[in-house]
User: Fold this.
Amino acid sequence: MNIWIIKNASLKIEKIDKLVERLSKVAISKGHEVECFNNDEILPFYSAKSSPAFVMKRRVPSPDAVIFWDKDVLLARHFESRGERVFNSSKAIELCDNKAHMMNFLANSDIRVPRTIVAPKIFEGGSLAEEWARVVIGILGEEVVLKEAYGSFGMQVYRVRGAEDLYKKISILGMRPSIVQEYIASSRGRDIRVNIVGDEVVGAVLRENDSDFRANISLGGRAKPIELSDKQRDLALRAHRLLGLDFSGVDLLFGENDEPILCEVNSNVNFLSFEQASGIDFAGRIIDHISDC
Ligand SMILES: Nc1ncnc2c1ncn2[C@@H]1O[C@H](COP(=O)(O)OP(=O)(O)O)[C@@H](O)[C@H]1O
Ligand SMILES: [Mg+2]
Assistant:
């Protein structure tokens, strides 16, 4: 197969370069041809005279499959409108990229999530009423987690105490969309990352962080492989399937009595730390899945 791998030009994160390099090497070792592109190298072109086209410097044959390691949903959709197969799909990436959309999409699924309130849309120069923060704290409790709808590596996730603090922090976000969740105290500094390809759980790690309520590896969390309970496996798989993902990393929180609660689902999952902790060839599983589709 001729596989293209797309990443974002503006995101200068070494981990993502390494991850794309690894995917590329694994695909080549399995006999595929691979081309890697930054999203700004491919110009989606529309005109009345032709079907959706690409304008690009390099002349290469069209892909049989596109591994989309970016969140440039419009570019992913452009591939799809040309009939090309994109992994993950633009729809799945779009839903996972925005934590508010994800909550809304899973709303009728009986998947347990932290009690969540989506913040209202704010226009430029506008602001929220202080009363809003008081109502939210009244519903969710004194301690809450404020999350920007778009965020990764735990960087846009904030722990907040009380209405005044919530109002201050959310005002700083300005027009950026966000959600507020109850703080799941039983999960402080720990969560589970479940790694899934196709319809199968490939493996899971427990992430623990002694110095922060967020368990993300980038913030100092340590990962060690764990066996999932049936409930944890079932919840992660259900969320993965509902969101229409080909591969994903599902974050689960620990509720009371270790009851699993869905934290979020990642479409562009950073699997390098999982591979390191588990010795499992996640990249190989992705390439095999794409070959089988
Ligand atoms: N409602 C919550 N209660 C307690 N801890 C949480 C909650 N939501 C997230 N966390 C912690 O914060 C981390 C980052 O949150 P997450 O929603 O996964 O954002 P990101 O996309 O940045 O990883 C989680 O891995 C978890 O450890
Ligand atoms: Mg996360």
